[in-house]
């Protein structure tokens, strides 16, 4: 399985649509996308993971790195995820305390946390 990425702007947020698997092979592609967005001045990101089938530790590392990158610019990185198997990974690793996780893009864009 490959990784699909696309971006769009909703209000003052940049939404990154992610599909497929985020693993040791595909995570660099996501990292490049996040770095490029921040370098271009997009500091409020929403990563939509509704289409993600698999997430490993490398993928988690990329998301944490993205969060650190936007926070360095007073930005935010919110996740959209409603799949129990992916949410379980965030709960087990304690990352639910680090990332705001929403059930829809609309909810993430409207959030002020």
TrEMBL record:
InterPro entries, alphabetically?
A: Anti-sigma_ant, STAS_dom, STAS_dom_sf
Which residue range or ranges hold the STAS domain?
3-112
SUPFAM superfamilies documented for this protein? SpoIIaa-like
Recorded hits in NCBIfam families, A to Z, give:
ant_ant_sig (TIGR00377)
Write down the PANTHER family for this protein, in alphabetical order.
Answer: ANTI-SIGMA FACTOR ANTAGONIST TM_1081-RELATED, ANTI-SIGMA FACTOR ANTAGONIST TM_1081-RELATED-RELATED
Into which family does the record put it? Belongs to the anti-sigma-factor antagonist family.
- Under which name does UniProt file this protein? Anti-sigma factor antagonist
State the organism named in the record: Streptomyces bangladeshensis
């Amino acid at each position: 399985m490959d990784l699909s990425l696309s971006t769009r702007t909703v209000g003052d947020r940049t939404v990154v649509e992610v599909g497929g698997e985020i693993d040791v092979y595909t995570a660099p592609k996501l990292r490049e996308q996040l770095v490029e967005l921040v370098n271009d001045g997009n500091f409020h990101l929403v990563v939509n993971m509704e289409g993600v089938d698999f997430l490993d530790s490398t993928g988690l590392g990329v998301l944490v790195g993205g969060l650190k990158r936007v926070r360095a610019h007073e930005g935010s990185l919110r996740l959209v995820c409603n799949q129990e198997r992916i949410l379980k990974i965030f709960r087990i690793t304690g990352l639910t305390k680090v990332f705001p996780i929403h059930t829809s893009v609309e909810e993430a864009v409207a959030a002020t946390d």
